[in-house]
Amino acid sequence: MDGSFTPHGKHLIAGEWVAGESTFTSDPASGPSFDFAIGTVDLVNQACQSAEEAFWAYGYTSREERSHFLNTIADEIETRADAITLIGTSETGLPKSRLVGERGRTTSQLRLFASHILKGEYLDIRHDAALPDRQPAPRPDMRMMMRPIGPVAVFGASNFPLAFSTAGGDTASALAAGCPVVVKGHSAHPGTGEIIAEAIHSAIKKCGMPAGTFSLIQGGNRLVGQAIVQHPLIKAVGFTGSLSGGRALFDLCAQRPEPIPFFGELGSVNPMFLLPEALTARAAEIGAGWASSLTMGAGQFCTNPGIAVVPKSPEGDAFVSAAQSALEETDAQIMLTEGIAKAYHDGKAHFSGHNAVKSLLTTESSGRYALPNLYETDVEAYLQDHTLSEEVFGPLALVIRVSGTDEMLMLARGFTGQLTATIHMDASDAPLARQLLPILERKAGRLLVNGFPTGVEVCDSMVHGGPYPASTNFGATSVGTLSIRRFLRPVCYQGIPTDVLPADLD
Ligand code: NAP
Description:
This protein is α/β, with parallel strands linked by helices. The protein has two domains: 11-130 and 141-266 and 471-501, Aldehyde Dehydrogenase, Chain A, domain 1; 272-449, Aldehyde Dehydrogenase, Chain A, domain 2 (3-Layer(aba) Sandwich). The chain has 14 helices and 21 strands. Strand 8 (181-184), helix 6 (190-207) and strand 9 (214-217) form a beta-alpha-beta unit. Helix 1 runs parallel beside helix 7 (222-230) and helix 4 runs parallel beside helix 5 (169-177). The longest helix is centred in the first third of the chain and has 24 residues, at 96-119. It is globular, with a radius of gyration of 24 Å. Residues 155, 157-159, 184, 186-187, 219, 222, 225-226, 240-242, 245-246, 248-249, 265-268, 302, 340, 343, 391, 393 line the site of NADP nicotinamide-adenine-dinucleotide phosphate. The site of NADP nicotinamide-adenine-dinucleotide phosphate has 27 residues, from helix 7, helix 8 and helix 11.
């Protein structure tokens, strides 16, 4: 397949490409825009009905069949590699290298789940053999296994058009579990969504899976997302996006006659704690590293380390000044959407105009472009005004100066839920690190030492989640093999003859 791709703009509903009466026009960072069908409540209903029908076959496929299906989706994505990069770079403004890397991450994520389900450990099978002679009462044979929950809705992320979108981690883990998926396409990259849906569609046909195993409904109307999460046949939702959008959809899930889990990944400022000995040894190096992590991808990472907790000391000053110098050298970068750029400029205006915040670096950028901005405040001001703790999506950072260990620990206790928390330390900082760690464990899903949180490894031990608002369900992760757990539920089979039990239990 060559690198050209012209989107036809249709939805994929139960194996059919469906046009719409009304359309919206994409708003790419560069290159031509295209028209896409606007989703409707009727199409949502069709997609959910066909997902439910598909579940009766797909939910009972063998692990080997689903593993082959996931690998085939990865193959089909690779077949379209150049075209995906072309439309993805055009729509998002992300560089080619990023799209290429993210495609590799997406296909390796699908392949990881393909091999994970073959091992069978995710089924968490338990068996308590019958005790017919037990007194005072006999015990029947009891077995437990995790089962797929049914159709799952997925809302892709604007900032990861591949790895967290149409065939991203939510879709891969749901399909691996045995759950059909209905994706609400992100309006920031509808063409990228369409070509990935083509890859999944092709894999469905090649593997003989039911047509309703996967549907993509383009957006263009907020009623589409609302109808999906409220549809009675949808049993769980995976979401990555804004706190306000996620919270609105989460509330709709909770208000349903049958409430369902909403696995939302919302906002995080990912605090970084600079301990004194690490600063003495390498303040400038950490400061420069922080600036580079903050500006990667125009700061549009959910794991962007937006807050540095820094002692009031000459070494702390050296860290801040190194970060500031490196940020001053950063060029303007294009953001994912006009809306995200506007939210960034609004966030910057809020910090710049705040009377308890000192501007260390204030930049002027307009339209869809962003330059870094750096601010400083103290613990009292931070803890008194919750608006300072809200994520500003983009290359904006806040330094919070602390006057000693007690203030650092008090501030740590004041943070809301985070995806990550980082400590920069040397060996002699260990006593303070030992005090911080139990606090940070209660705040974040992933704790790091002497690193930057922006890279999220896809592997067995990764946790990408955390207490609210980092995620709406702190028992879950949206990255790594444990993410399959979101789309399974335990079923106990009591006294059931082995020739009647599901295949994995007999
Ligand atoms: P978003 O505005 O929350 O949108 C995410 C998805 O949810 C889109 O498909 C959107 O539909 C839909 N949606 C949002 N609110 C809805 C509502 N009230 N009813 C129905 N559907 C709704 O997020 P975004 O556009 O991806 O990015 C905007 C902001 O999200 C960023 O500025 C950033 O703050 C945050 N963000 C956070 C992360 C993270 O990982 N924590 C990642 C990306 C973005 P439409 O396509 O129709 O808009």
